[in-house]
Amino acid sequence: MERRHVLKAGALGLAASAVAAPAIAQSSPEIRWRLSSTFPKSLDTLYGASETFARIVSETTDGKFQIQPFAAGEIVGMPQALDAVSNGTVEMIHGPGYYYVGKDPTLALMADVPFMMNVRQRLAWMHVGGGQDLINDYVAKFNVYTIPGGNTGTQMGGWFRKEIKTLQDLQGLKFRIAGLAGQVLAKLGAVPTQIPGGDIYPALERGTIDAAEWVGPYDDEKLGFAKVAPFYYYPGFWEGAPNVHFWIGKEKWEALPKSYKEIAKVAASHAGMELTAKYDARNPAALRRLVAAGAQLRPFSQEILDAAFKASNEIYDDLSAKNPDFKKMYDSLRSFRNEEYLWFQVAEYTFDNYMIRSRVATSGR
Amino acid sequence: MERRHVLKAGALGLAASAVAAPAIAQSSPEIRWRLSSTFPKSLDTLYGASETFARIVSETTDGKFQIQPFAAGEIVGMPQALDAVSNGTVEMIHGPGYYYVGKDPTLALMADVPFMMNVRQRLAWMHVGGGQDLINDYVAKFNVYTIPGGNTGTQMGGWFRKEIKTLQDLQGLKFRIAGLAGQVLAKLGAVPTQIPGGDIYPALERGTIDAAEWVGPYDDEKLGFAKVAPFYYYPGFWEGAPNVHFWIGKEKWEALPKSYKEIAKVAASHAGMELTAKYDARNPAALRRLVAAGAQLRPFSQEILDAAFKASNEIYDDLSAKNPDFKKMYDSLRSFRNEEYLWFQVAEYTFDNYMIRSRVATSGR
């Protein structure tokens, strides 16, 4: 076998194959990267997107481009992850921009802010409405390039020890909630606090805090909040469609061959789609189990939603006046959102509305 | 340059490079396929998914795997496309299963049937809920393998010359509508008819037909129906989330190297996501223009929706009793749908509901 190929190579012209070699080496180089997820392995759906992404990149390049995913804390913790990819400690990370709202609130707009849009609308804004170009123009200042990498869908509004019906019920309420959403709740009289995920349960149990938000049924179930704060409110109006990005060091990104760049983009699309699909597939049964375990579902009242919407818009006006980056991205998001809901209220919303009503009427025939 | 490489190849050992050659040839073979879309170029969003898919496959394989897209009719027309991919006339096609409902109604379930689910729920069913495995087990009888390749989102209910308020208004109504939806409308007293897209306008103008459905604002606008049948009904309850597949000849699929299979899957995911995002981004402005041109938006009445839902379920029961393939896929879809809406009615739906109401209240602030 070996000898036959040697002869064949000679017969067909050694020069041609020798010239081709460098081109192959250039277009499919062997690359090893590390990907630090900002999520712990316990958030298996979110962390799993990094595993899916890495698997696709490896399989589509015959193992030449290998990306090793790490959970939050294995290389760097979530709070340091953006710095780590900015300064080249890791080649890439996976997480939502709003984790870094303390650096600049514009980073929250990349992920989600109160009363913005739903998952499909955000995908349309990023991929067709110019949003992803705006994001990458902006994040260049952090020395990174980003690719959309999944969305949890609308989250829940969190677990409350007592019912919350009016604005009065929010006064002084110690609520575990972060970022811009925390600022909105503070304007309404609540006291936003920050506690690591593992400390929430005992704090709710002892009454050190009155309420806490996490993700949605599938992730919330694991933490057992229903036992100590049974009122489970919806919707999480501050997270209608929290989008997660893959963030890649800018020089590392630019040095990739074109084929690897395209592979990274479509691998991220597929991993992102799968992330949302997993939540959508897993949340219903988790919700059933939570209700069986004592969770009491409650919608936020119109009074609370209206006050929160007003407070959110005041914060956006404030930030827009002070921060041109924020204003540029917010204006794009807001006008896109308003057009989107003009259309979604017609076909999409009325279809879902009928399916929900007929489900109730026919007990889910 | 050439000479230096010749020397280098000799110095490093010709045998090694000659042995490596077959491995490279196996893992990255040069392949040329033809992709027949079932859509004309005038449906640029739907047809465009084939162009996006082909571009990604080429770019991610450094041009080694080339797929040339053709519009409907360039090689085969839409009605013959499934046969063409089954018998190897073309390597692949792009289109919705319901085009071939005449062969077997199970093919409609792959795409969409009346009162089923929304886009995210269908993605979750296919990718996480076992739906795509069920589909591929089933379509093996047509000698094909399929990959999900996009969704238009909920379509509109069509253009009507007169208002339709009650079931009485549907009696004898000549409605251009196909497939299972036509059977549902027939049960309600309408007369479903089939007319090619280009003949709809004159038929509506002359009153040869009373109503016609097409897609949604972006595609409908081009055909100018608002001038001759101004009542624009919603939602298209027979197409809550019409899903389009890429269909590949089974032997052709199985002969692909693993890396090309994975590339095809993620290229289809990205092209499909972009297809939906384009409709979502383009429909709002088209809807505005249609209303400005005289379209009058009307929701289907509860009476009509309830009768259509009942008729649909009767048809599903009928088909399930006669057709085990239909029953198997329908049972999976129905139980998945009912679980999905249990969850979607909580966070997703109430978020959209508030955003729609606040948009109206604040004139889209």
TrEMBL record, chains A, B:
A single Gene Ontology MF term assigned here is: metal ion binding
Q: Which branch of life, at top level?
A: Bacteria
GO BP terms: organic acid transport; transmembrane transport
Pfam families the record matches: DctP
Residues involved in Na(+) binding: W214
Name the keywords, alphabetized. Metal-binding, Signal
Tell me a GO cellular component.
tripartite ATP-independent periplasmic transporter complex
**UniProt keyword Transmembrane helix present:** no
Q: Which residues form a coiled coil?
A: none
Signal peptide per UniProt: 1-20
In the UniProt record, does the keyword Metal-binding occur? Answer: yes
Q: Which SUPFAM superfamilies match?
A: Periplasmic binding protein-like II (SSF53850)
Write out the residues that bind substrate: Q155, R176, E213, E239
Protein name, per record: TRAP-type mannitol/chloroaromatic compound transport system substrate-binding protein
Record organism: Enterovirga rhinocerotis
